[in-house]
Amino acid sequence: MSGRPIRSGAEYIESLRGRNLKVYLMGEPVSEPVDHPIIRPSINAVAETYDLANSNPELASAMSPLTGERINRFLHIATSPADLVMQNKMQRRLGQLTGTCFQRCVGMDALNALHSVTFDLDRNNGTGYHDRFKDFLVRVQHSNLVIGGAMTDVKGDRSKSPSQQADPDLFVRVTRRTPEGIFISGAKAHQTGCLNSHWLIVMPTMRLEAADKDYAIAGAVPVDAGGIAYICGWQSCDTRSAEGGEIDAGNARFAGQEAMIVFEDVFVPNEHIFMDGEVEFASTLVERFTCYHRRSYVCKTGVGDVLIGAAATIADYNGVERASHVRDKLVEMTHLNETIYGAGIAASHQGMEMKSGAFLPDEMLANVCKHHVTRLPYEIGRLAQDLAGGLMVTLPSERELRHETIGPMIEKYLKGRADIPTEDRIRILRLVENMTLGRNAVGYLTESMHGAGSPQAQRIQIARAMQIEFKKELAKTLAGINSASRQEIADDLSTYMARVFAPVQRN
Amino acid sequence: MSGRPIRSGAEYIESLRGRNLKVYLMGEPVSEPVDHPIIRPSINAVAETYDLANSNPELASAMSPLTGERINRFLHIATSPADLVMQNKMQRRLGQLTGTCFQRCVGMDALNALHSVTFDLDRNNGTGYHDRFKDFLVRVQHSNLVIGGAMTDVKGDRSKSPSQQADPDLFVRVTRRTPEGIFISGAKAHQTGCLNSHWLIVMPTMRLEAADKDYAIAGAVPVDAGGIAYICGWQSCDTRSAEGGEIDAGNARFAGQEAMIVFEDVFVPNEHIFMDGEVEFASTLVERFTCYHRRSYVCKTGVGDVLIGAAATIADYNGVERASHVRDKLVEMTHLNETIYGAGIAASHQGMEMKSGAFLPDEMLANVCKHHVTRLPYEIGRLAQDLAGGLMVTLPSERELRHETIGPMIEKYLKGRADIPTEDRIRILRLVENMTLGRNAVGYLTESMHGAGSPQAQRIQIARAMQIEFKKELAKTLAGINSASRQEIADDLSTYMARVFAPVQRN
Amino acid sequence: MSGRPIRSGAEYIESLRGRNLKVYLMGEPVSEPVDHPIIRPSINAVAETYDLANSNPELASAMSPLTGERINRFLHIATSPADLVMQNKMQRRLGQLTGTCFQRCVGMDALNALHSVTFDLDRNNGTGYHDRFKDFLVRVQHSNLVIGGAMTDVKGDRSKSPSQQADPDLFVRVTRRTPEGIFISGAKAHQTGCLNSHWLIVMPTMRLEAADKDYAIAGAVPVDAGGIAYICGWQSCDTRSAEGGEIDAGNARFAGQEAMIVFEDVFVPNEHIFMDGEVEFASTLVERFTCYHRRSYVCKTGVGDVLIGAAATIADYNGVERASHVRDKLVEMTHLNETIYGAGIAASHQGMEMKSGAFLPDEMLANVCKHHVTRLPYEIGRLAQDLAGGLMVTLPSERELRHETIGPMIEKYLKGRADIPTEDRIRILRLVENMTLGRNAVGYLTESMHGAGSPQAQRIQIARAMQIEFKKELAKTLAGINSASRQEIADDLSTYMARVFAPVQRN
Amino acid sequence: MSGRPIRSGAEYIESLRGRNLKVYLMGEPVSEPVDHPIIRPSINAVAETYDLANSNPELASAMSPLTGERINRFLHIATSPADLVMQNKMQRRLGQLTGTCFQRCVGMDALNALHSVTFDLDRNNGTGYHDRFKDFLVRVQHSNLVIGGAMTDVKGDRSKSPSQQADPDLFVRVTRRTPEGIFISGAKAHQTGCLNSHWLIVMPTMRLEAADKDYAIAGAVPVDAGGIAYICGWQSCDTRSAEGGEIDAGNARFAGQEAMIVFEDVFVPNEHIFMDGEVEFASTLVERFTCYHRRSYVCKTGVGDVLIGAAATIADYNGVERASHVRDKLVEMTHLNETIYGAGIAASHQGMEMKSGAFLPDEMLANVCKHHVTRLPYEIGRLAQDLAGGLMVTLPSERELRHETIGPMIEKYLKGRADIPTEDRIRILRLVENMTLGRNAVGYLTESMHGAGSPQAQRIQIARAMQIEFKKELAKTLAGINSASRQEIADDLSTYMARVFAPVQRN
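The joint structure predicted for all components is written out below.
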């Protein structure tokens, strides 16, 4: 974590080499992930977050109030609504550039959440987590590292709390405490970009009870700490990246990544512990993190831009782009895509200041944003498949295209518009397949469904925030029903209506 | 327009008395609209815009850069994204307080649009409209008047332009010009709140050609100018306001209003003319006005809050509020309602500065907002009817409730939960009826569909703004297709992507 | 009930005169419903069921196995899938001809349900209800009478059973028993067409417990029996039928009807009692009735045909029928409308024979049909409003059209295509208003939602019938999961999958 | 085609061996498709169509009027609505048993369409195709062969007709005629189950003009005829079938199949030609085939049953099956699935007799059925992913599960409910992945979209059949608009309304 800062995507990729990680993929240990054909595209996606900060610093970097230096925006704590909005804009742009998950939002959102949670925790308990956290943050900002956030425990029997599980390891927990620090064990599932990070921030995954004290742990761990194993998922069509050629992968250069992380007595020294046993703050941390993170799914609008573009391109290649129903479907896809964007931007814009000075997005709108993300990309994907035509799933492989005798048949018979190379038509169809069935459908669809909380989690949050009693009063008043007292809009910004009707500072 | 400013809802109502308007309703002339039982609720709704400015000045008033005075926000020109956002917040609040259309947005949006259009028109043509417009605006701000906007012509045969119509009056036009001003004739349909305004701003309704010069007219006309007739619509259930009692109307105090305005050689003096013959600016004016106005439909989220509250109340009165499907429907209604709000706020937040200094909302997001308004209130209304139960359409009248022998039967048999008065149950059901079938369904549903442009109008705008070529390049790049040149995001904020990726000023 | 049979709509209308009914509407007693301008359109709609039987006997009549005579199909017991299907076809046609609810299905479905329930009840309990019921049926068939079904109790506190209510009358119950019969008291809400019937069939509304014995009552009562009062609902825009003119009503000739029926010690002689105290058969009766009745909502596809036609007509009158988005909306409306029809026909086709020889529609598909009816007419209505344009809610009244000075303005300015009379344009817009906001929106929308059970009732039935364990076995088998035993499709037609895979008799 | 009939799935598989087919898959020739691990599952699926005919002959076989023998239902010509309905029931059952496309419907639908088309063609032109066709059919029925239908040409530039293409081979065409027969060249794309068939029936893919005479060709060709090459698609996750293990494939035993067929001067003798040059019957054949085939997508309801079962199973394994939102999602999935079934059954039930004696499904309802198939499986799939949880896309491979050191970690950490083996949980998740992203998503989603015609094709057919003028008359009549003549329902069953209102024969 010392050493000179990483200054580009290329330097970032180099920084990952030579770590002695214990990684498994398809039953085999992976000695050097950077060179593994299935893993590499996910590393390339993270690398884009460095390069964009160079090519468009206003979008993807920020001035750190902590260091006074210009830092990557993924390491910046938002201290205004404008900062929150800029996160969304950067996310959309990276979605456009990679067409996939660039994996760095979890860390950004974890850092932002910990900023205010450690502050509030200290104020409440007289602890010193916030300063520790800031020390860690300064070093990370200076070195320009990738932070992974590790939240989702494997959970076991969902009807039982962590401490009630038959196997105590089904949630990550403290197994031993020493004067220098703690040892943790357990496993985190579906960890986005973990292999491609430098540090992991471990956090609890749900509200905890007093009995769950050993599970109320937050802290930072180097990715190559002793005792960690990474078990990669075998995801739809990912082996195509290892089959040679570049067409059949659809998006040869970029991909997402999920793995399970298994911790076996991993040591965390005191200076990297940001919560230890304060069960009453576990849900606070979870809620703030998900509030940031649900709105971070604005990234999918950038991915959606790519898919809309792919659908329009194949319609163009087929010679039907001007058909009114084609045009209308592109409009609908755009309408849906911008719906997500609008909700995300509104959530960021209506953010509120926490006591630590960090800004938190509006919780209601963040949930509305993510809830759309669990629905609309599926419909955008369906429409893309409609425009693509059936060929997107019956294409022969690139090897047929290159084949001495079969190749000419492919060239001849898969020709669309005369002026478009058959290969280009195939390439764009493979991209649509990649995004709706293949490797990136994992990120664009299923992860959109479950990442940062499944749909029901958002509905629960919306239910909590919807202030139904306030709305009932509105209705009763207009219906002429006498009511004990007309409920006023609270001043307390912790309620949604107070935030809705709060004056906006002139910007 | 001189005289002391209007300072409250009550003063506003008084200001409407004694005008010698030619008004027809259900075949009868209306001598004093203020006292007409069907018209009065719509006047009450406008009056709330005055009272809110007093009770919550931060929300509903603003400091005028023109006069240096605090003025009603409906008369304020937005000179920052924050101003645009505050318009939306005020609109939502007034929707909550009235449960209907408070009719004053058209004027606000017309004034804002004219501010930049007259400026640009003068820059282009060397005319002096902008100063004239500002003079008018200063007086209006000072007197605190209600401005109605009159845009929608009756249109006749939709396949023909104004000048091609068999009857030249099917679009409002200049019939005569004198050194002092012009005379106009024609009719504007569906005019919201026209009777309840002090001035009307007449504007063209569509793109015009050179031959349509006499139709390229914008100007201000007092509501009681000679030659104007107002023909009120007969709207669903509006006669209930005249039947005595207050329950059956559902929302006895507030309602919307639409009428047709017929102009017969109405004189407009030069100082109130803001465009005359500049056909090339007609579409500019229409597009800017609709951009403001489509996002102004955020008001419907306030109305939606009332309907959600009404649905929750009746579920409560029926004793089923805790049922999981009831709860889930309230969540869905909230999710949809906040979707509209989010898109509107994002449109305002992402507004851009015009040369005149006025800020215009983001066009794409404004259209996305309005497009949702043409769909989601119908679904919210459907869910409200689901929760209300069939009784909402089979209720006997208030007269039965008050009837000597029938009244006790009603009391006995329409009782729900024992602790809730039968009358309260009836009242809330009548409110749901009012908002989904009755007088306010006109505003909450059909006007949501067609006001500020029908759904297809938004789709056309979305199609224009969706930058499909930019998105095709994104896809081709990722698919590995060689393309002449990778298209960069333009700096020109007139394109959507430029606005998306423009840095936000820190606020 | 003796006397010569009713042979036409006109004779039916005459048959209703001179009954001494106690009817209230808008606070006033109605001496002769036949002549009441608000009630009459609902009588006209029933009359069409007689006239169609004459003009198209194959569609609207059937040969009675009981009497050997050709009878109105509404009085026929279905003894084959083809009979069930023909009910749906007749219903659609009557929906087309009246554009509203013709009110006679409740009785048809009640008779069909009682046929098998009384048979099964007798087989189980050794009672003699089935013969009694058939005697009644023969007389009714012979006289060609209208039967209303009275099921929906007012229910009071929904968390309590009938016998637990504070007021025992909140469900209809037996108050006294004599050797000759019983006396009943209570009230039924939302009773479709009750005033326009000759007999009412009273039935329980829900599953009953042993303590609810006095509520387990089914029987036939003449509409003019002593002790009955009818309290009509005041429904959206129904007073327009009493305002003179015929345009503003939208559909001047036809309408639906709902009223509350209050029973005060009404006597039912033994020969008209079809269930008395057999609480265990209450839910059987409710379930069979709703099974028939949910599929009977195919009538709404006929009403939908009218609304689709109205939307196409106004698009035509506006000169935009050929626009691709207009065409596309008409296709979507048709697709949705035929979805309801398809589910209904499939439910009827897949009907199963009961022990009495009557055929019952498929319960799953009947619920799927009705569940669509709670959603799709709202979307069809929304699309109709889209095509209609805003004028449908801002139209002045017919009186303005006929007004000496205002009339010519209306003629001039509400002109659409030059070759279409302004009045015709207004007429079709008023029809769309009638069907989406006005008097018939009550039937096409809200009654579609709640009639024959609210949406959640269908979901509960679908959940019961969905055989999730069978489907889990299918999945486990394909996933290679060892399972105790592969579950076979049962032979018992009482499960859905057995009916799905039952061979169809060749027809 | 001689030899003894195939009597079981096993015999069918043997019948495929040793054919000298020219097959390519992933760039390699496939010497024996039966033994190829990627192809074999698709053969297994077809084999089920033989075994079901043995285990449930009423469902999957029929008595042939041509041969007097009991034959497989896939080779039977439907001569009653009941026959059409039984096709749907068999299709649903096979979908349940295989969870994929069993590939034999295309042939069934092609045979049924050719029966009436050759008959009508002969009546019109005095040709002798119908007898030829019946001769072929008798032999096929006797030998119990699999017939593939080859319709979809590769099409090239979609704005040009076959004869206008730069390359004349972009539609299959006659290249040479001899006294004994014809030679054909060209290619058919997306051919379902072609490799697994014994015969292919070649048909034109669209309406043809006079200039397209050489493209108006229908005939039967043995799959192993000289000059044919098969180029298999590389489909999502299909290589998993070749990676060893059986879990990761999700559905190890069954799969669908699509390939491109390239014809190079393939000879068709006269006795196997069923159309040659009669361009005016090309569209008739296409329309009748698609009418049968669009309703054949009822098969997807059987596949849907599997997916619903899989979703319920994983909810069960996670311990949340009783949660109300889980239950509600299963209900919704069922509702949508049965919607497709209902529309299909109704289409079959409302089938009409052709002059040849064959029955054709109702065209409107067949299109409504298929149009739902282009939408609802996507939503069912989305809901299945919702219930599955994110683990369905982050699972490690079976090799990790079997791995000495990693295996125990997987066992420990991917445990859900304590009583469910981890492996079973993984198996069911892999099945959901298979059906929503993997190999069978090709069939359940994308093929549902495009097979038998893309969505717009159905909308065009619905538009043609929707009888909008008839519906306009209904509306005008009710609105009181004088119309030249009230349009009656035609007797001609070729219109939809005539079929709707036609009496049903009692069955």
